[in-house]
Amino acid sequence: MASNRDNKNSIQIRKKKKNNDKELEKGSGKTCLDEKAEQITIERSKIVKFIKRTLEKTPNGLRTEFQAMKRTNNWEAMKAFKAANELGKNRYKDVGCLDASRVKLQMPPWDHEYIHGNFVSTPSNPKRFICTQAPMEKTCADFWFMCLTERVEVIFMLCNLKEKGANKCFEYFPSKGNETLTFEEGSHKITVKMTHAPVMLKFTGEDVKAKVKLTTVIVEGAGERPLRTNHYHWIDWPDRGVPPADSAIIQLLEKTRGTKYPMVVHCSAGIGRTGSVVMIEYMLDQISRQVDIEDTDKILLKIRDQRNNSVQTDHQYLFVHQVYLNYFKFRGVLPADIEAHLEKFTKEYHKLVI
Hints:
Elements lengths: L1 H67 L10 H7 L16 E3 L9 E9 L2 E8 L7 H11 L3 E4 L4 E2 L2 E2 L12 E6 L2 E7 L4 E2 L11 E10 L2 E11 L13 H8 L7 E4 L5 H17 L7 H9 L9 H18 L7 H15 L1
Parallel strand pairs: 3-12, 4-11, 4-12
Antiparallel strand pairs: 1-2, 2-3, 5-6, 7-8, 8-10, 9-10, 10-11
Helix pairs in contact: 1-7, 1-8, 5-7, 7-8
Protein name: Protein-tyrosine phosphatase
InterPro entries: Oocyte-zygote_transition_reg, Prot-tyrosine_phosphatase-like, PTP_cat, Tyr_Pase_AS, Tyr_Pase_cat, Tyr_Pase_dom
Organism: Caenorhabditis auriculariae
């Protein structure tokens, strides 16, 4: 009798286990879908939180917030920059380069370590960017040597060679088909050769009309492995101003998502237009990781701790916010009940910026 009872119990246990396994199988499939839906909900809730916070501040409030974060120069934190002034290695004497995050050229083979460039992080990448000044005639070799040693695969150039009649950047990259440029520093030579004729990028969306030219080059010299680099030249971003607040920057950053090496970003001084791009990428990083988007004043201060005085004007600061509000509307994340508030925000933005 005991044996029969044990058999019955054993059968019931097996049936129960089988039913539990079936439930688990059902549950696991459901859980995957639920998790995905939950992730979307979490992401959406964090984005909506940022949107509401931004709209509540208003463009005038953001302008006041920016003006409270005064630009400063602590020369004690930029000793290498001060020393390099005497060597003519700095484009602007009032645009410093912080020692703590400074990019250092490798000695040897190079005979000096200084270049006006800083590593700048995003939440998931401690060396996402190298923010630098536009190359000068006597720093072109330094610039390309830095690219070689840091294996830079992407360069964003956000200025033109001349703007409003002033020299803003030396012609450090080939602009004509099959052209090769050679730069020298001491006994070292670095060559930069174009591999394909430059092409104008096409962006998604009829309203996105940014003029960005892509040139692919091969860099060689200084005993380093040859390097293939994509050079993106944003032609129509005005000095100390802003382009239309469309998705061009975000699309450009998405095109370069695959690189695991630092991306070089420069305008003329390497802080205004450059800082705007870095700030947008910092926020994209937080969105992709599904964490809260920090207050933008805190984000800017973190960037400035790495690249001094990043984001030069209140227009640039406002621009970063307007880009994101437009982007979230395009993605369909904007709640219907606050669309009117966005319209009001955008009108105020255009009055202040355009």
